[in-house]
Input
Amino acid sequence: MTAPLPEAPLLEARGLAKTYLTPRTAFRPPGRVAAVAGVDVTLEAGASLGLVGESGCGKSTLARLLLRLVPLSGGSIRFAGQDITDLSERAMRRLRRRMQLIHQNPSAALDPRLTVMSAVAEPLRIQGIARGRALHDRVAALLAEVGLPGDFLHRHPHELSGGQKQRVCIARALALEPQLVVLDEPTSALDVSVQAQILDFLGALRRQRGLSYLFISHNLAVVRQVCERVAVMYLGRIVEEGPAAEVLERPQHPYTRALLASVPRLGVAGVAAAAPGDPPNPADPPPGCAFHPRCLVAEPACRTTAPALNFARGEDHRVACHVAARRGLPEMTETT
Output
């Protein structure tokens, strides 16, 4: 008897790249910026992957590439086993019912002229899914699912709190019953107390609906709470990837360790810098490992040869670091 073939990942990208041209100025010739440089991403159905890194590292660009919202400069994307790399815009419009994006700032994501009813109903109208009473009832049910009463249907965004606006954005994203939801810093614009409520709700929602999340954040505590796996980006590349507990408790890349060291801790005076110095100019990246000018354990090979993303601890934790691959980094301490 032939064994059944393993189910394909919901989302699988290989060698994704996005290069932008920079204009000529009085002080600089035209050039190229590699916002994303040869990134691989795999997301299983029903799983959650956190994407973390400093501002400008390419997290949001990568998310938009995966959703085909910006054209690729290189690489390939498969969604639910289908190659969508070169799908036409018309075909992508149909496919986007199955993949949705929740933005960072709910106030900017909602049209101030539209009521909650109109905002949530918009994707249903565009896709021709419901109209009339059926449309009204479906929107009311979505609001109830995200914890908002029916009298919110006729309110405008300026009448809502930040958390309520984000719940409306979540309801709108759920309207088309997607399989994949990309969340781009969905709680960063909210008060801390509201953040916890939204995160708990998102976790429950994923379990109930069997959703897959790509969760973009610079907040490691948030990623630890929501995600099963974590990928750390630096200057357009993934430098470490693996189970969230493994990566955040036993990181193997010096940059991941620097990010963790920068998180404020109760009873510890001061906050360490994420890493010494500033990130390099993406239009003129350093040779070798892009992190080596800021790395405290860099070796000669780091300055000349870019490390591959290889397995460092078992078969599920990969790191792009010559030092970690060759002899491993020392165990972290409270002062690391």
